[in-house]
Every structure is written in structure tokens, then in C-alpha cells.
Amino acid sequence: MRFALALTLLASFHAALALPPAIPPAIPPADQARRHLAEIASVFAGQGWKESRFSPPLLVSQAPGQLYESGLPPVWKADLVDQRGRHGYVFWENSQSGLLLEFALDSDSETPPKDGALTPGVPALQQFPVPGRKSANVASGCVPTAGASLVGYWTLHGVPEWAGSTLLPLDLRLKSTTLRLRNQMRMVEMPDTSGYTNDGTPLSGAFPADLAAAIEKDAKENGVSLRSEFSPFSFEQLKKETAASRPVLLSCLVRLPQKPQLSWGHEVVGVGWLELGGEQYVGVKDNFYPTESPQTVRWIRQEAFQSLIRVQPEAINEKNSHGDQKATQEETGILKGGRNKTFEKRAADN
After folding, report:
1. HSE-up of 138 (CA within 13 Å, CB side)?
2. Portions of the chain given CATH number 3.90.70
């Protein structure tokens, strides 16, 4: 949903309208799905992957004439359901190797994977309708919504004053934070002519670099001292920030899990990393992926990412952090239990 990406890649997008033909896989798609499930289960023990069943794999091409002509090639997708009825998916390359591209399972566990690391506790704020300039309502936008999720993490981990009055439920404070960040950035409204939402709600785009500046300004206005830095994506930097329990803001070019025929430039919160099968994957909290469990992490191959914003508040009060986290979780249920239904109908499966 990043307007910057739509501008910088526009020339190359036109060449992508003629999609390549399907490549006969070296391994039958159903067998490939089993292989990937076993591979994932080996690093996520006890989270339901091993017992998951999958639907017949489908080869999915990008729909022509999208608002964002990403040029992404066709991929194989298998939808999953585990023994507890939790849903997920797996994407892999349409190639002889069938390289694993991304995966997620609607899970209530934020246990770090084997051969990886994860920062738990980032609120899974989903995009929500806000008043628009050209339309009555528009989507809040991935850039400010991701920023608000990161603010929510620090609100629960040592900076309780950043998101506003602690007397309000956390979800309301984060929506208010989203609006504040929107007001600090150049937001662009775009009609949803491709079906990203199910009811045609217009979309909102912004520049990721503007988000770094907006977060700094918002923090200062709320009495929070911090350091932030906008840079090209680096897997090593992500590992360093994860080791320090600091989630990051990431821009990426990805398919919609619920509508893989559509793709876009997107802003998410980076919460972890994983090395699997010789490849590197990034764990994210996605603001346009409604799930039963707010703890759900989407794992995406690192080549999809372009930029990284690191945010480091200063003088964290750990005692204050733990007390505020417990009270807020019990009050709102935004992190533990409670379904996040924001935009659920708009982002539902076709």
C-alpha cells in the first residue's frame, strides 16, 4: 500500500502484464506441500503445523489491471487447517525447486522458532475506516497503522504515556495514534478498483521515509525521547534489533494472503527472523491480515523487503513496563484472546 513503491516501480510494472507460463514442477504440488509442512513443523514444534491438513494446491497468477502492477510471478498456494480448526497457508515458487516463499498459521503462540528469534507482544492492529478527503471513509493505510502497532509495543514495554491516556483501552489509543501519524504524513487516497477490500473502500498510501519522521515528531509531542533511523532493509540489522527486543517497521512487496491474485507495496511490523532450508525469512505482524489470534505471525522470504525503520526509545522504565502491560492486556484483550475483526469482511477470502 506504499505510494512510493507504486511510483518507483511503475515503469517495470507494465512489463509484467504478460505473465510467464506455468513451469512444470519437479515434485507434484501435493508432495511439495507435504515437504514444506514437514520443514516448517521442524522449527515450530507444538504449534499445529505437523497435524495440519491442506487443500489441493492451486497455481495463482496476478490479476491483470491491478492498482499495483507488482510484476510478481505465479505461485503455488495451499490453504491449511490444523486439528484445532486454525487456518493458515503456504506459498512456494512455481519453479523446479519449489522454493518456500511464505507461510502463516493462525496461532495463539509467539514461541520463537528453532534457528530463529521473535519479539512477542506487538499489538496486531488492523486497518480501519477513517474519514477521507475525497470519500466519506478510506482505509487508515498500512504505513500509519503499522507505525501505531509499533507505538503500541513500546506503550506496553516501558513508555506507557506514548499512546495517550492510560485510562482508555489500548485499541482506542492505537487508533488515535494512527490518526496522529496520518496527520504528520503526506497521505494519498486511491480508489480500490481491484478488490483489495470487499466493499470498495478507498485505500491510503504514504512514503515509509515520512513514517520515520512522523514517529519522531509524535514521540516528542508525547514526551518520549527516542532515536529512529530509516535505511535499506538488512537481514543482519533485523537480527540485531530482534536480539534487543526492538520490533522494526518494514516495507515490502507482497501478495495478499487472503487474495494472492492481488499484491502491493506494504508496510508491516518486523518481529522476528528465521533461517530455514538455507533461506532467510522475516516474521511480521500484518495490518491487512485479519486472524482469530492476534499473536499470528506471517513469515516471508527476506527478498520481499526494501526498507527498515529502527526505533529505540531512551530511558525505558522496565518496572513501569511490566505493570502497564498486565493491566492493559486484561482490560482490552487486544493481545490475548479476542478476535480482531477490523476490516475482516473487507479482507475476507474470495
Report:
1. 22
2. 118-332
Instruction: Check residue 24 and give its pLDDT.
Output: 59
Task: Please state, in angstroms and rounded to a whole number, the distance separating the CA atoms of residues 20 and 271.
Answer: 34
Q: Which residue has the cell 509531542?
A: 221
Rounded to 10 degrees, the C-alpha dihedral 228/308/90/288 comes to 60
Mean pLDDT is lowest, of 226-235, 267-276, 284-293, 337-346, for: 337-346
CA-to-CA separations, 38 to 34, 53, 117, 278, 347, in angstroms, rounded? 6, 12, 20, 15, 29
Q: Please give the torsion angle defined by the CA atoms of residues 251, 255, 258 and 260, in that order, rounded to the nearest 10 degrees.
A: 180
Buried b (16+ CB within 10 A) or exposed e, 188-207: bbbebebbbbbeebbbbbbb
Contact call for residues 125 and 145 (beta carbons, < 8 A)? yes
Q: What is the pLDDT of residues 198-233, one digit of tens each?
A: 899 999 999 999 999 999 999 999 999 999 999 999
Amino acid occupying residue 341? K
Query: What angle do helix axes 170-184 and 208-221 make, rounded to 10 degrees?
Result: 120
What pTM did the predictor assign? 0.85
> Is the pLDDT score of 23 beyond 90?
no
| CA dist., res. 121 & res. 257, Å (int) | 22
Distance from C-alpha of 249 to C-alpha of 271, rounded to nearest angstrom: 9
Number of C-beta neighbours around residue 41 at 10 A: 16
Residue 70: alpha-carbon gap to chain centroid: 17
Q: Give every CB contact of residue 48 below 8 A, 6+ residues apart in sequence.
A: 82, 83, 84, 86, 105, 107
- C-alpha separations of 70 from 144, 189, 285 in Å: 22, 19, 21
Backbone torsions φ then ψ of 165, nearest 5 degrees: -55, 130
Confidence of residue 166 (pLDDT cuts 50, 70, 90): confident
Cell (9 digits) for 87: 487456518
**Predicted confidence (pLDDT) per residue in 259-272, tens digit:** 999 999 999 999 99
For range 308-325, the mean pLDDT: 63
Three-state SS at 38: helix
The CATH T-level fold of domain 118-332 is Cathepsin B; Chain A (3.90.70)
